[in-house]
Every structure is written in structure tokens, then in C-alpha cells.
């Protein structure tokens, strides 16, 4: 089925393989993150969403990415430390990925072709919402903040299903 991400494997921030089907029944918010970006303060908003909707079934998955302006140069350990100490991030972080280009991670190949607007990720902090069945249902560009009404409306709609 087009847009289903559950057959994709990713690496955790600690380097362990993880199959995305472990999130069956959860609503996912997948974000390519960076520590040195104008949008980096969105980490705080993402964590607020995590706190508010985590118990209801929302899982936020942060994928560090150095594809845009080399704004994520650190190691996984440095990235995790930064997110925890500066923003109190408790949602899951993963191994650094390529969100675009010839080395694009299979997850991002699937995400960027599943919903409109299709095509390459334009910058850090693009957001993808995935249904409880693993289907990509929405995409938001970097300027859409985690507390924006349109993003929250889709999260709440998917959680209610």
C-alpha cells in the first residue's frame, strides 16, 4: 500500500535497529531535526506536544539531519545531550539520516512521496503525521510550529480514530 512506513527499519540514537511497525496503533509525528537552525526552538514545542498527547497515543520521532546548512554536525551522543539539557526532550531521537539526495533514507523516500506536496524535504523541522495504521496522512513545512492549530487538528483527528 502506498505511504505505509511500517516495513522500514531505522536506527535509534544508540545505534540499534528498530522496525517502525513497533508503532502500530500510535499516531506518529516524524520530524527532521537540527541543533543549530533558526527552527531549533521548535524542540520545546515538540516536547509540549509529547507531554500533552503522549498518553493518548502520539509518538514523536526526531531524526537528526545535517543536510541543510550543516546545522546538525554533532555525534548522536552530542545531539541527545543537547536536546535533553536545552529543551528537556523526552521523545525518541534516532540516528542521523539524510532526508534528501542520493543517500536519502528509505523512510524519507517514503514520506516525501506519500502526500502533497510531494518532493524533497526543503529544510530542517519539516513534519509528517502518520496514522495508527502507518499511513502518511499530512505534511507540514518547517515554518509550521508544533503548536499551530492546523498541525494539532490533524494530530487530534488521527488520535480520535
Verbal overview:
The structure is a single chain. With 161 residues, this protein is an alpha/beta fold. The chain has one domain (9-160): 3-Layer(aba) Sandwich (Glutaredoxin). It contains four helices and seven strands; from the N terminus they run βββαβαβαββα. The strands form two sheets. It has a five-stranded mixed sheet with strand order 5-4-3-6-7. Strands 1-2 form a two-stranded antiparallel ribbon. A hairpin with a 5-residue loop joins strand 1 and strand 2. The protein is globular and about 40 Å long. It comes from Trichormus variabilis SAG 1403-4b. The active site is at residue 37. Keywords: Oxidoreductase, Peroxidase. GO terms for molecular function: peroxidase activity. Pfam families: GSHPx.
